[in-house]
Design brief:
CATH class of the largest domain: Alpha Beta
CATH superfamily of the largest domain: Glycogen Phosphorylase B
Strand content: 15-25%
Bound molecules: adenosine-5'-diphosphate
Structural class: alpha/beta
CATH architecture of the largest domain: 3-Layer(aba) Sandwich
Length: 501
């Protein structure tokens, strides 16, 4: 099939989270399965400074944005190491900025305008580039306008009749919520600003807009697809999602094993595989301890955490447990992340108080992320909610035993070390259910006790995890099926429309 990816983040060009990893890897995998894929993303400053090759296409276009006309231009590149074309939407006023969505912790005031422009540019690029498209695969609120524009403005436009849309939710908590006056920049009639379509309690909601108009919806794990239909985890959109449950599916993200593989990882001093993990991990642990100024203690458990320092990731639990553990146990903590200022302060405090136990790197550092995955004995993800989560999948492949809360993608991918799971050789980690410090501490204590005293079980957990296949290929096959269904659904809806039903 012909698939056009529309995404605000694509690794390695521009990334703030898992969305970029998905959009950097899935297109190539779809191509390997025989699909014809192209990607469109904004030309951020980060893309220009990434050193990737950018070919100007001499394709300029004008888009009405409220009461002005905004000019854009398309450039062409490709996903590194592949022939998958990436079309970059150039509009320097919108995209040539320090960061993708915010500055100094404040969202850009014109985020709605920026991504409405991007969404319209995606649709215009189909015409300009004469792309054959069966499905536009949209991602998150930034592209939520695309399904609406396809159904409203482009429904009868030549060349767009058979273009279906799939919207993937990577994180329901980020909805693209804007003032009602931003309806003016969408260019759509106010009649769509109602609670059944684009309005959300008096505001314009771009994710909801996408969910209402898309031919299909997916999210990044089966469990999260269920969870988001409940009031506890639906972020106010549970009603919309319940109504659209028949077109909602969950597909766990894959891992790019070209990038995340301890056998070939360019960032590791000591590469290793499932046979050499004991020596390999020990050597990487010693190297990381030395690099971060921790004592090189081979038998002390090293706990890794990587990611946004946000409540979503369970940081309020970690903060409390860490405080106690740093005082009472010998465990070492390696943390890599950026996020909410009070967690920066807290981690700064812990690393000053206990520099021999806590190494907190409060920055974004790809190299260090790989080195931490390889060096740690266990990896902690006590998330409040987790649509999919990638780090636990990396951990599995790196022989780093995940300790996770059993939600969303974490529940779908980590098999708890119960007696039953252990005896059938399926267990890969430690899990807990309640969102509480007690539950986290119980799981963590049990992991540490197993690490120290049940080396046979530990070895089994590591080796079962390392043998798992969370490659993109298995997810891509599922997406292939979803694309087919979405396209079919679009064709049927269109036939009905034309028949005047
Ligand atoms: P999110 O909710 O942030 O998308 P995921 O676990 O799905 O969480 O994906 C996060 C991705 O970003 C992973 O590839 C992770 O390694 C990476 N990451 C997050 N924070 C950092 C950081 N400070 N340095 C390097 N990589 C990071």
């Amino acid at each position: 099939m012909n698939i056009l990816f529309a995404s605000s983040e694509v690794a390695p060009f521009a990334k703030t989270g898992g969305l970029a990893d998905v959009c950097g890897a899935l297109p190539a995998e779809m191509t390997r399965l025989g699909h014809n894929v192209a990607v469109v993303m904004p030309l951020y400053r980060q893309v220009k400074s990434s050193g990737c090759s950018l070919e100007p296409l001499n394709l300029k276009f004008d888009i009405p944005m409220g009461n002005k006309i905004v000019r854009g231009r398309l450039l062409r590149g490709s996903l590194p190491g592949t022939s998958v074309p990436v079309f970059f939407v150039e509009q320097d006023d919108y995209f040539d900025r320090d960061e993708l969505y915010r500055h100094k912790g404040e969202d850009y005031k014109d985020n709605c305008e920026r991504f409405v422009f991007f969404s319209r540019a995606v649709l215009e690029s189909i015409r300009m580039l004469k792309l054959a498209v069966d499905v536009v695969h949209c991602h998150d609120w930034q592209t939520g306008m695309i399904p609406a524009l396809l159904q409203i403005e482009y429904a009868h436009a030549q060349g767009y009749e058979n273009v279906a849309s799939l919207l993937t939710i990577h994180n329901l908590a980020y909805q693209g919520l804007f003032s009602h006056w931003d309806m003016l920049v969408t260019g759509l009639d106010w009649k769509y600003f109602n609670m059944h379509q684009m309005e959300f309690y008096g505001k314009l909601n771009l994710l909801k807009t996408g969910l209402i108009f898309a031919d299909g919806i997916s999210t990044v794990s089966r469990k999260y697809a269920e969870e988001i239909q409940t009031p506890e985890m639906g972020c106010g959109l549970e009603g919309v999602l319940q109504k659209r449950a028949d077109v909602l599916e969950g597909i766990v993200n894959g891992v790019d094993y070209y990038v995340w593989n301890p056998v070939t990882d360019q960032y590791l001093d000591h590469k290793y595989d499932a046979r050499s993990w004991q020596q390999g991990k020990a050597a990487n642990k010693a190297a990381l301890q030395a690099e971060l100024g921790l004592p090189q203690l081979p038998h002390t458990p090293l706990l890794g955490l990587i990611g946004r320092l946000a409540d979503q990731k369970g940081w309020n639990l970690v903060a409390e447990v860490m405080g106690r553990w740093v005082r009472e146990t010998d465990a070492q903590w390696v943390i890599l992340g950026t996020g909410e200022p009070h967690y920066h302060d807290l981690l700064g405090h812990f690393s000053r108080e206990a520099p021999h136990k806590v190494a907190a790197q409060l920055q974004f550092d790809e190299r260090l992320a790989h080195r931490i995955e390889a060096a740690s004995d266990m990896f902690l993800m006590p998330s409040q909610y987790e649509p999919c989560g990638l780090n636990q999948l990396y951990s599995l492949r790196y022989g780093t035993v995940p300790v996770v809360r059993s939600v969303g993608g974490l529940a779908d991918t980590v098999v708890p070390a119960t007696d039953e799971n252990l005896s059938r050789g399926a267990a890969t980690g430690f899990t807990f259910d309640a969102y509480s410090t007690e539950a986290l501490e119980t799981a963590l204590s049990s992991a540490v006790a197993t690490y120290h005293h049940r080396k046979d079980i530990w070895q089994k957990l590591v080796e079962t995890g390392m043998a798992q296949d969370w490659s993109w290929q298995r997810s891509a096959e599922k997406y292939g099926e979803v694309y087919k269904r979405v396209h079919q659904r679009h064709a049927e809806a269109r036939a009905k429309l034309l028949a005047g039903k």
